[in-house]
Amino acid sequence: MTTKLRTEINNYVLLIFLGAVWAASFVAIKFSNEIFNPIEVGFYRTAIGAFFLFCAVKFRGGNITLFSENTRLYSLIGFLNASIPFTLLPYGLITLPSNIGVIILSANPFLALVLAHFFTLDEKLSIRKVIGSVIGFSGVVFAVGMEILVSDLNSLISALAIYIGASSYVVSNLIIRRISHLPSDMVTMNTLFWGSIWLLPLVIIYGNLQNIEFSSTPVLAIIYLGVIPTGLAFSLRQILIRNAGSTFMMQVGYIIPIFGVFYGWLFLGEKIGYFLIISVVLVLTGIGISRIRVSAKTIN
Q: Which domain holds residue 224?
């Protein structure tokens, strides 16, 4: 097996792993919403993630530098990559079920394709990428069905909040490319630190700790959100962006709904039918088409 092929396989494995972890975060957010408001969910998730990575960097003997030449960039990424989505997603999921939340998230690769075309030199649009994205998105629709349609103003506002939060991820991914050469845990720690700083004034004003009746499930859900899909998965995401590019990484949006449906069956007793099998095939086909490299050969 060549090094190039091994790297490609590793990229796909990491992409699937991130899809599984981030799909579970939608379930965790629903549990967290039981006692925490969206601002509290966002702040605690960000702060716990930053602390987890602080410990990880210290453990490996890395350099802890919260103020450096990249501080402004860290602050911007923290705002776009943590403060905005970590509050808007819980807000949207107060009204909408998690399966609709993940289908809205699956629109991210389309935005990623367009933005990467204009703001990067090596991820230009092509017919192959567009076709792959359309096929992948059709698999997502197959998985969740037409329930993505909203029927009232509150649902529409919630859907818009989730989409804005998810779009913020796309923009931050393009910015992360500028510092993807740095250690992933250090970069993520700094961005999460600044993300929590952005949210600190809001949680002081709108936090409601004095009236919260603590329950083990929401608290464990918050800890899970901070450690696994934030601290760990965000660090792995930077590695994937460095190795495969932001457009490839954003195709995780096609995988998240598949796992979301599976978790619905596992935890909520929802049925899995033939449509899920078809959707998995469509999603994997779409990702495969978008990643095929066509070598032009000159015929003499």
A: 3-129+148-254
